[in-house]
Structure formats: structure tokens, C-alpha cells
């Protein structure tokens, strides 16, 4: 029986059942375990649909497109489908909700909030964050006579070359190399050189001088100091495997994957792994600081008041702290400032994250509707630079293609 027939569901007659669609993730398992307490306290019943990423996308495509009201709360990827969802008006405007007393929207980090905002309005709440940091081998640095990890990209280049020269069987540096997969991790290099994918006027910026230098640097570092016969289709699992097998000194990657490097069951070098802030380029250290996942309210839901009650609880300080203690990095500044909130993370990783959140950029790929297609275009110069082709020429070609893409998308 529907309890929301009287004009839209937020008039006090909305359903006491909140239908929540979540991705397979540790965050989701933690929320499910905590749900009984929320249901008891709120008097609401939460029905969870849990799906893998591909199935989640498929379900959203079908249901949101049809204007279905049988999803109230949805877990989504702000940088992968956020613009598409917001542009198609699938996500409810949460401007009034985020003013909830005691919940404290101002506590959320700027980068993740930027990524869950559309045309100046909040349409989501970040729940899981990622920053790019430098993973490194303490023992190899010591052996090379280096007293500290590199603070700048110039120092990284020098240190990587020195380590590889001393033992060619160990790469000085490893990172993602696949055309699409590398884009997100390349982004921090691009920003630290002073560039971006799109300029302030909405035009392609991948042909700028800063972008050309960033492509040449990233590709050159892998070409000159990377693994021998390096493949150009590596995503994080392949790059991480090289690092955890003891075959690389430095590795730039998302902090969320750190346990792969520090868990003795997964890593041969677990005792020797250190973490440092992303090294500074000509424009400073500008790693991405993004929400990999957020919660939004389906704009077609007839139960938005209770949908918000669930989000308010799931993203509150108490739940965010509990999530972080289990290893899920959140977006609340106060939780990171609380020693309990970082107690399960390596100390040097916490320091690297703190540096990243201060100057972090809120996106790690072009903010467009057709993200996959854009990544293929802007990622091509990475592959070209790794294989020794002219990075500047490749960036110029990509710039023309990406501008056409942007023009087509704006039609």
C-alpha cells in the first residue's frame, strides 16, 4: 500500500520504507552492519539493493531514464556519471537538506564537495575519498643514499634514474600506462605542471604548454626509469604488482589501494613501503582529492524527506569515523583531525593525505558526460610519450580531437 499518494510524499505521509541502491564496497558492508541501530532510532525501514559496478550502471540507466520512483537513495560515482546524472536531472537538488542543523556541511573537504556540485547546487554527498600519493621503498632509498623521499618532480626524476642505474632489474618508477587507465593518475602531474584538461572558458587545454610538459614528463619518466619492455596497457593491478613484487622504487597511485602494498599476504615488500605527499611540480604539489563515491537522492523519489534522513545518518560524523576506523577514507575534515579517525592508517600516509586535501583538485579526469570517450582521447599522448614519440605533437593532436569532442557534447 502506498502511503505517499497525497501530493509527492514529503507532506508527512511519505513511506516509512527507504529504498537504497548501493555498490559492492566495504563502505556498504559497514553501513549494513550499522543499519539496525538507525532503523530503531528513526522508525524507518531501509531496503538495500546491492550491486556490482556494471550492474549498478545498468540499473541506473534503465530506472533513472524511465523516471522510476522505486529508488530513493543512490550511491554513484561523481566523476564517472555525476555530470550525466545531474544534466539529465536524475539527482535531486540538496541545497535545503545540507543546511540540516548539527550535520555540518562545512566540515566536508572542498575538493569532494566541488565534484558533487552541479551548477552551484549540491546534488550529492561525498562518502569515500581518494588522493594520489607517492608510494616508495624505504630500503631502496637508503641503499641509494637518499635520506628522504623526493619533494619535487625534479627530485623524483633524479632519484628514479639513480636507482635504476644502480640496478637495472629494478625500475626507478612505475605507474599506470594504459591509455584510459593512466588518465586519473596522470591528472596530478598535469595539475602540478599548471595545466588541466579544460580551461576556464570550457575549451580543451590538453595542448597547452603546461600539458605538453606534463605528458613529456610522465611518459619520459616511465620510458627512461620504468620497467624494462614496459607494457602500455597497465592499469593499477599490473602497476601495483610490479611494485609489490619488489621491482620498482617509486609508484604514484590512489591512497585507497595502500593495503595492497602493506599487507604481507599481498606484498613481498610490505615492511619497506613508505608514503609521501605527491611531489611538487612548477605549479606546486596539486594532487587530485576526489570522491570516488557519493550518495544522492533520486529526483523522481516520492520519499525525499526520509531519503535525506538516511543520508544524514550515513554521512554524519559518527558513521564517517566508524568507516575510517575500518580503513574507508571519508571526506570530513573533523574526522581526519581526530586521532581515532586516522588510527588504522600508516602515520606517513595520514601526513600525505593531509597535504593532499589542503591543495587537492576536485577531479581526476575531464568533467564531461561521455567520460570513457574523453579518457581515450586525452590518454593517447601518455602512451605516445612512453613509446618515445613526440609528446608535444601528440598533445596537439589530442587537443584538436578533444575540442571537437567538447563541441559535439555541447550541441
Automatic annotation (TrEMBL):
The keyword 4Fe-4S does not apply. It holds the Pfam family SBP_bac_1. InterPro entries: Bact_solute-bd_prot1, SBP. Keywords: Sugar transport, Transport. PANTHER family: ARABINOSE-BINDING PROTEIN-RELATED (PTHR43649), DIACETYLCHITOBIOSE BINDING PROTEIN DASA (PTHR43649:SF12). This is Multiple sugar transport system substrate-binding protein.
Amino acid at each position: 500500500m502506498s502511503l505517499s499518494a497525497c501530493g509527492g510524499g514529503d507532506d508527512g505521509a511519505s513511506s516509512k520504507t527507504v529504498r537504497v541502491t548501493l555498490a559492492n564496497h566495504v563502505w556498504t558492508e559497514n553501513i549494513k552492519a550499522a543499519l539496525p541501530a538507525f532503523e530503531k532510532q528513526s522508525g524507518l525501514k531501509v531496503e538495500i539493493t546491492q550491486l556490482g559496478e556494471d550492474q549498478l550502471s545498468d540499473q541506473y540507466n534503465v530506472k533513472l531514464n524511465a523516471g522510476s520512483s522505486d529508488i530513493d537513495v543512490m550511491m554513484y560515482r561523481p566523476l564517472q556519471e555525476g555530470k550525466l546524472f545531474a544534466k539529465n536531472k536524475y539527482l535531486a537538488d540538496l541545497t535545503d537538506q545540507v543546511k540540516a542543523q548539527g550535520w555540518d556541511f562545512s566540515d566536508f573537504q572542498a575538493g569532494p564537495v566541488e565534484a558533487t556540485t552541479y551548477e552551484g547546487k549540491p546534488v550529492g554527498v561525498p562518502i569515500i575519498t581518494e588522493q594520489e600519493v607517492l608510494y616508495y621503498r624505504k630500503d631502496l632509498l637508503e641503499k641509494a643514499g637518499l635520506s628522504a623521499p623526493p619533494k619535487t618532480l625534479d627530485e623524483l626524476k633524479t632519484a628514479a634514474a639513480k636507482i635504476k642505474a644502480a640496478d637495472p632489474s629494478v625500475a626507478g618508477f612505475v605507474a599506470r600506462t594504459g591509455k584510459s587507465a593512466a588518465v586519473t593518475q596522470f591528472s596530478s602531474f598535469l595539475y602540478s605542471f599548471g595545466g588541466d584538461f579544460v580551461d576556464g572558458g570550457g575549451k580543451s587545454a590538453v595542448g597547452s604548454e603546461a600539458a605538453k610538459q606534463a605528458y613529456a614528463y610522465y611518459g619520459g619518466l616511465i620510458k627512461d626509469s620504468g620497467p624494462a619492455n614496459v607494457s602500455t596497457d597497465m592499469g593499477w593491478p599490473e602497476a601495483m604488482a610490479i611494485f609489490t613484487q619488489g621491482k620498482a622504487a617509486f609508484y604514484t597511485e590512489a591512497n585507497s589501494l595502500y593495503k595492497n602494498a602493506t599487507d604481507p599476504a599481498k606484498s613481498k615488500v610490505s615492511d619497506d613501503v613508505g608514503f609521501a605527499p605527491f611531489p611538487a611540480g612548477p605549479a606546486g604539489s596539486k594532487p587530485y582529492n576526489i570522491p570516488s563515491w557519493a550518495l544522492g537522492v533520486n529526483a523522481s523519489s516520492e520519499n525525499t524527506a526520509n531519503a535525506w534522513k538516511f543520508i544524514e545518518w550515513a554521512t554524519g560524523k559518527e558513521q564517517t569515523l566508524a568507516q575510517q576506523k575500518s580503513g574507508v577514507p571519508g571526506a570530513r575534515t573533523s574526522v581526519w583531525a581526530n586521532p581515532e579517525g586516522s588510527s588504522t592508517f600508516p602515520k606517513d600516509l595520514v601526513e600525505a593525505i593531509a597535504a593532499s586535501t589542503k591543495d587537492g583538485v576536485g577531479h581526476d579526469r575531464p568533467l564531461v558526460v561521455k567520460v570513457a570517450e574523453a579518457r581515450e582521447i586525452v590518454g593517447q599522448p601518455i602512451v605516445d610519450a612512453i613509446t618515445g614519440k613526440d609528446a608535444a605533437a601528440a598533445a596537439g593532436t589530442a587537443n584538436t580531437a578533444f575540442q571537437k569532442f567538447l563541441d559535439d557534447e555541447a550541441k
